[in-house]
Amino acid sequence: MSTPATRALRVALHGDTILTHPRFNKGTAFPAHERKAFGLTGRLPFRVNTLEEQCRRAYDQLSTRDTPLRKNTFLQSLKDQNWTLYYGLISRHLKELIPIIYTPTQADAIANYSHLFRRSEGMFLSFPNQDNMEEDFLEQTRGRDIQLFVCSDAEAILGIGDQGVGGIGITVAKSAIYTLLGGIDPSKAVSVTLDVGTDNEDLLNDDLYVGWPNGRVRGKAYDKFIDKLRRAFLQPLVRKYHPHSLLHFEDFGVNNAKRLLDYYRDQHAVFNDDVQGTGAVTLSALMSAVGVTKSRLLDQRILVYGAGTAGLGITKQLRDAIVQIDNVSEAEANKRFWLHDRYGLVKQSLGINKIRDALQEFVRPDDEWEGVPTNEKGEIGLFETVRKIKPTVLIGCSTQGGAFTEKIIREMARGVDRPIIFPLSNPSRLAEVNPKDANDWTDGKALMASGSPFPPCKHPHGGKDYIVAECNNALIYPGLGYGAMITQARSLSDSMIIAGARRLASLSPALKDPDSALLPDFADARMVNTEIAIAVAEQAIDEGLADIPWKRDEVRDHVMGGMWEPVYPELVYDKDGLH
Ligand SMILES: NC(=O)c1ccc[n+]([C@@H]2O[C@H](COP(=O)([O-])OP(=O)(O)OC[C@H]3O[C@@H](n4cnc5c(N)ncnc54)[C@H](O)[C@@H]3O)[C@@H](O)[C@H]2O)c1
Ligand SMILES: O=C(O)C[C@H](O)C(=O)O
Ligand SMILES: [Mn+2]
Which keywords fit this entry according to its UniProt record (predicted)? Predict the structure, then answer.
């Protein structure tokens, strides 16, 4: 592989068709000889700009947009016009602009998708068109070298639930992050939304809704659709034409996320970001926190609030790490976890009807809770659990903004010297606690990480501000995915994920200074994901999962050399070239 800067691209487009093609368009940066070759001399103003100058102009234009959502819309238009400029601009202002194109602002863009709609991007596989699925797929992929498919059915977008066809917005945002932080060539990624209807009444009652206006298909009909997808898409097409691609699942509902992952795992390199990406980044943050408290993972009492896709993914990832790192049995490691869901503590007497199968290994025995007050339904609330078990770690992935109240946080801080508190729900308004409040209520002792970005916290007694780490799967999934792709790994194994998480933890500022952030800053996220990709690729080779002719000591060169960068490639007109 080579970067665009080192290889001329042969392109068959001419005149307006190249100016309106976001992959090849350079706008005012077309040099004179390319303007001539592509029929652009009279179509562009005289002066040739550098990418740097274009970025300055675009940044000025962006700055006149006065709300995050307007900035998001502006950037989406820029992406529709010119990929290099879009990625070049965001790369130059990574920390400022990631929250605009990703969480939290992208949540608003998704919720308003049908009203903001200008131009479609990605692949729409709609339930009523399922008989044409194969053709719809081939239309966009024929002859292309695809490395990445990001796929969602939009049932559980971030914490904002069922967003119907607007779910395409999370897949394109996740793809853009792969490009920005993982160096994936955007022309080799495809975002796919499965439009199986929606149960979101606001969307169904909106006559401008652009998706299939129908209730969400569930049960057998959904399974049949997925099965068709599998037969039309995965087996003959993806495996035949794109055997080394990574299939990334995002924001499926809790009943489908894990099922799809397990189903495909042995057949292809698949990855569920909400289960595995979230588990991995949270493991890194926790490894870093236990470094600060000078304890082991095994010493923790971990309370996970919200036992859905992310909650269970995190729990299992932490459990597996305890088994691997602290060398205990799974049953022993399971005892370090207490899970909560909408029916309170996950305990035996709730009965199997309430507790989904996947949670069974973490159910707490009843005799542990004798004498603990319950509500009229016999459920144990979060405050009671905190008082009883004195958790060292409290993780929120419940979508319940503000659920970690002052009373709960103060109670936690009474039981432990340095409470580890991770409100991970997105977008920002759904965080279980605002880190500023948790900082005040714990007298500056809390070690924190959040799912969306929050400003640093003032120390109650003066001194250095506390930087709240952003514990978002975007800090790790691009590296996990890219490490798998570059080694053409047959699967993305648990050990590859743990290798990535350990590398991320090793880059944490808190390792050097315990008062610093638990995870690296998003401004460094590209370097961080490069390192993660290297660790993952090395592990793939060690495990014999890689399908490449090169050796372990060449990993760094291949990883760095294969990363796409927002730089204009030289373009040459060729009537048989790309179009
Ligand atoms: N930081 C990250 O990287 C990251 C990654 C994935 C998900 N998330 C966030 O985590 C949240 C959950 O995502 P998910 O995909 O797991 O969704 P999900 O719907 O699968 O899980 C949410 C769970 O919370 C439970 N819940 C609802 N109300 C509750 C209450 N009052 N008390 C306790 N539990 C309650 C639900 O029953 C469900 O099991 C979302 O806000 C999402 O944005 C963050
Ligand atoms: O998309 C994000 O910001 C993280 C995560 O995948 C989520 O669903 O919240
Ligand atoms: Mn997600």
Answer: Metal-binding, NAD, Oxidoreductase
